[in-house]
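Build the 3D complex.
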Amino acid sequence: MLKGTMQRILENSTRVAIKAGTLFAILVLAILLAEGCAEAQSSSPAATPPMGWNTWYAFGCRVTEAEVRAAVDAMAANGMKAAGYEYVNLDDCWQGKRDAKGFIHSNERFPDMKGLAEYVHRRGFKFGIYSSPGPKTCGGYAGSYRHEKQDAETYAKWGVDFVKYDWCSASQVYKPRQLKAAYEKMRKSLLRARRPMVYSLCEYGMEAPWLWGPGVGANLWRTTDDVSNRIDFQEYQRMMFVGFSEAGLERYAGPGHWNNPDMLQIGNRGLNLDEDKTQMSLWSLLAAPLISSTDLARLTPAQLAILTNRDVIAVDQDSLGIEGHRVSQTGPVEVWAKTLSGSRLAVGLFNSGESPLPASVRFSDIGISGAVQARDLWQRKDLGKHRGRFSAEIPKHGVVMIEIQSSGEP
Ligand code: GLA
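Done.
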């Protein structure tokens, strides 16, 4: 009897234990699933620096829907899409009037925004758009101030995948200490709109966005003012100032959150091919977003080859997402290095001087001992084994960019 009772008690408690165990397992599973979903939802669409094209330095405020469609076609045909350029970003000056309910409409140069987004998507690209937390954009068009929620809903409805949010007139309505909250407000509105959108902050580095950008869900933030003050024209010295200004900021970049020194100027007036290669090299070493901004119809084959150099792009897009750092600076010669996956490193030797100059990098300065295998990423040529250091003559306003890997030999 006692044995029977004990047995029942044991059976019951086992059942209870099994039930509790099952419940516990279900609970654990549910938590894991929920976490998985949350991770899937929050997992960044910018795991590597975003690549694409933007209308601003190509067409400025005159931009039309036809030009955006033509850029899409050009990228699909000229090898840029195959090389990884993915976003087609409409910058300022697309905005029309708000309707009686407050919803924004595009202006007469963009008669069908949803149709444009579909066109972009059908050709395998993603679609980006632009606004400001202020009442007006920098071009004087309607900003999102007091319409953040409505604008985010409209972008989701149109099929937008990327939002650049540009400070512009926001200082008229916000104090500097409210800047972060203004950016947070739009991020929340975008999340509520339930369409994943890359969030690109543009406040010119005023309030050190690298410190708080990730906290407000930013995937990239501009580190300085514009790389050029003029449409379709780049001054070399300004470009170098903007790129090199990232020295010290490398620790803030990583998968999903990138420092952005503004757009690629390759194809625009003012730069020669050495200077084009310099921007492509420096931006890749900086793990910068590679957003071309030029009239693609006018690219020469040589400029296109620079924009689509797979070896250099692979440096930018490396899966570790480690931004490069300045190794040395001697007058106009700077050496920058970026750690890559597979125990490799990319090194750029830059010469901002007005005549060719010798440059060199000591391997011990970039944490390498023993012999290394080197490859020139612009000449696309193996350079054999090097010991101790790598030296080269760098053209005026030029660059030599190499990838190195320890050969395993002392
Ligand atoms: C600011 C931004 C630029 C561009 C223009 C558009 O200057 O920094 O990148 O978006 O506005 O008006």
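DSSP finds twelve helices and 18 strands in the chain.
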